[in-house]
Design goal:
The protein has 335 residues and is α/β, with parallel strands linked by helices. The chain has a domain of 234 residues: Rossmann fold. The protein has an 8-stranded mixed β-sheet with strand order 1-4-5-3-6-2-7-8, sandwiched between helices. β7, α11 and β8 form a beta-alpha-beta unit. The longest helix is centred in the middle third of the chain and has 20 residues.
Length: 335
């Protein structure tokens, strides 16, 4: 028969200390082996973990490459891209002695007078010069900055147009223009501007030791220079056809990227220098008189000037405009 005596109280156990319910139950049911381990009074220091030294990755060793030959000029250009190259020729400058232009003579001949303000004539040649300058900038070479002014026959107004174009170009703030009298048989630029006679282009072509810039005359119109035709000769075509011509004309624009050169040449159908000069220029303006130059004369002249890559037709002495334009009147000037 099962004994139903009561379970002894904790106080009645043999030396069991008071404790938690689990501790007291452990003593009654013989669970002493599962009693929790005694907690020490002083905890030992936690062991310090030792980290293993990690070796850094090995450095990359630069393997010397085979030497490459670099041109000396390329290294200099890379270090100083805006510095002029050593082999570039020096800039050709013109004389500083200024010769006065006869303004009264300009008025008498119906030419542009720089101090006269915005006239109809000036406005017309401003449009012409803008197209010429734009073509020169688009081409980007020295030949395009050399402009030949020519006409099929005498009396079409080539000298009139060449002089006015040069005076209009001189008004550019960032450039200068050289007006060259290349009509060796009948030069007229000096008398038109009231300048003294002197040696010029033909003298530079005939003398291999001459520097053409020494014959250039500065004027009192800022930015305008004039090169006379020089000593007259019957061998002008032969001089222009020689290798010397390219050298002389190159000096006129050397080292001056904003300088334009305007040539007043003989009529294309009357003398050969126009066709000879056409091989050394990048632009040509063929002046045709509206009231008398025929179509056949224009076509023949274009064939003679065909060595020039850019030929434009300039119609002179017109009295009618389909659009009714009248330049200069907006500023209060006419004529």
């Amino acid at each position: 028969m099962t004994e139903h005596s009561k379970i002894p109280l904790p106080s009645e156990t043999d030396g069991l200390p008071d404790g938690s319910l689990f501790e007291r139950a452990s003593g009654v049911f013989g669970l002493d082996p599962f009693r929790s381990a005694p907690v020490p009074g002083v905890l030992a220091d936690a062991p310090v973990k030792r980290t293993r030294a990690v070796q850094p990755p090995p450095k990359a060793v630069a393997v010397p490459a085979e030497p490459v030959a670099v041109p000396q000029q390329s290294v200099a250009d890379h270090q100083a891209p805006h510095r002029a190259k050593v082999n570039d020729p020096p800039a050709v400058r013109f004389g500083a002695v200024r010769h006065p232009i006869d303004r009264e003579r300009l008025r008498e001949r119906g030419l542009i007078v720089p101090e006269a303000g915005a006239t109809e004539l000036l406005e017309e040649f401003r449009i012409i010069k803008r197209q010429v300058l734009a073509a020169a900038q688009a081409a980007g070479d020295a030949a395009a900055r050399r402009v030949l002014i020519c006409s099929p026959l005498p009396g079409d107004g080539k000298t009139f147009c060449a002089t006015n174009l040069a005076i209009a170009m001189a008004g550019e703030r960032d450039g200068e223009v050289l007006l060259v009298d290349a009509d060796f048989a009948k030069p007229s630029i000096l008398s038109t501007l009231g300048l003294p006679k002197g040696p010029g282009l033909m003298d530079a072509l005939a003398d291999d030791s001459a520097n053409v810039e020494e014959f250039v005359m500065a004027t009192d119109i800022p930015g305008l220079f004039v090169l006379p035709a020089g000593t007259q000769t019957t061998a002008d075509s032969e001089h222009l056809a020689s290798a010397r011509t390219a050298e002389v004309l190159d000096r006129l624009t050397r080292g001056a990227p904003t300088r334009m050169v305007v040539f007043d040449s003989p009529p294309a159908l009357a003398a050969s220098p126009a066709a000879d000069l056409a091989r050394h220029v990048g632009q040509a303006l063929l002046v045709a008189r509206a009231d008398r130059t025929g179509r056949t004369a224009i076509e023949d002249s274009i064939r003679l000037l065909s060595a020039c890559p850019d030929i434009k037709l300039l119609l002179n002495a017109t009295h009618f405009s389909p659009s009714g334009r009248r330049f200069g009147t907006y500023y209060g000037y006419e004529g």
